[in-house]
Write a structure and sequence with these properties.
By secondary structure, the protein is of the alpha/beta class. It has 2 domains: 4-80 and 220-302, Glutaredoxin, CATH 3.40.30; 89-212, Glutathione S-transferase Yfyf (Class Pi), Chain A, domain 2. It is built from 9 helices and 10 strands. It has a 10-stranded mixed beta sheet, with helices on both faces. The radius of gyration is 19 Å and the shape is globular.
């Protein structure tokens, strides 16, 4: 079986969620560093235009969005589980909270604090990504409020730990911990001194240190050309389609995120589960590529 290739950059918060999950599972993987901003000429041939980070590649199968990536890791490498309590319900809820409410507070706190120090090229890129103004002045005004929200979010995490447990679901770490952790890592990495400790939020900082100590598994580096060659030398895995999606089988469709980074992924509808959608693409250089996205937060539109 082809190995795990993660297209990433080190400062990416959503990639940190995945890296912690790789650490929980003790997996070996290869990092392909991609640019923070467009263009991304060594990524989009694999994804069909999708530009967000992280992207996981296993052979000719391309998995977009951290929510799908961590579940594919669980499917392929089930032990140790990312769901140590025996089901994914709690982790699903924590992840949705972290990816939406907590992430938005983190963005306001970080970029409001950085203020005029934010690179204009980054601002332009993120405006293209979101389709909205990247208003640094408004973020600066909101930064103090955002910091109060960050601390309130930390208190929510700490409430899980009042019975003495080491991690959010007990004595073993899981996706809940990785999801809750990565935004606080984002803030503390980008803005040292801003929210480095929450001394009056009992148990939080010790939990944060325990999650950080998990590490990222066995990481090595790969150059982009080798990742493209790995895709070219592989074939996508066989896929099934849910009965409810049979009408789309074989049709040309566009898969698009519904929040931001809506660049469509065009391909032949070839697979679905209750949690994922898949298309097959034929790249002129790489051959057959399967691109997979989460069902939640992504639309499928037939041509």
């Amino acid at each position: 079986m082809s190995g795990i290739i993660l297209h990433q950059y080190d400062s990416s918060p959503f990639t940190e969620k995945v890296r912690i999950c790789l650490g929980i599972k003790g997996l070996a993987w290869q990092a392909v560093d991609q640019p923070v901003i467009m263009p991304k000429p060594d990524l989009t041939p694999l994804t069909g235009g999708y530009r967000r980070i992280p992207v996981m590649q296993i052979g000719a199968d391309i998995y977009c969005d951290s929510t799908l990536i961590v579940r594919e890791l669980e499917r392929r490498f089930p032990a140790p589980s990312l769901f140590p309590a025996g089901n994914s319900g709690h982790a699903n809820a924590v992840e949705i909270w972290a990816d939406k409410a907590l992430f938005q507070s983190a963005v306001l706190a970080i970029f409001g604090t950085l203020g005029d120090g934010v690179d204009p090229a980054f601002i332009k890129d993120r405006e293209a990504l979101s389709g909205q103004p990247f208003n640094v002045a408004a973020m600066k005004a909101m930064a103090p409020f955002a910091l109060t929200q960050i601390k309130a979010h930390a208190a929510l995490v700490a409430e899980h730990l009042t019975d003495g447990r080491r991690f959010l679901e007990g004595d073993a770490p899981g996706l809940s911990d990785a999801a809750a952790y990565y935004n606080f890592w984002f803030i503390r990495s980008f803005c040292p001194g801003l929210a480095d400790r929450f001394d009056d939020v009992h148990g939080f900082d010790a939990w944060y240190a325990r999650v950080g100590a998990i590490g990222h598994g066995d990481r090595s580096n790969m150059i982009p050309a080798d990742a493209l060659a790995a895709a070219k030398a592989s074939e996508p895995v066989p896929l099934d389609i849910l009965q409810s999606d049979e009408a789309l089988r074989g049709r040309t469709v566009a898969l698009s995120a519904t929040d931001y980074g809506r660049d469509p992924i065009m391909g032949i509808f070839a697979g679905s589960t209750h949690s994922s959608l898949s298309v097959l693409r034929e790249d002129t250089e790489l051959g057959a590529i399967a691109v997979h996205v989460p069902r939640l937060g992504y639309s499928v539109t037939a041509s």
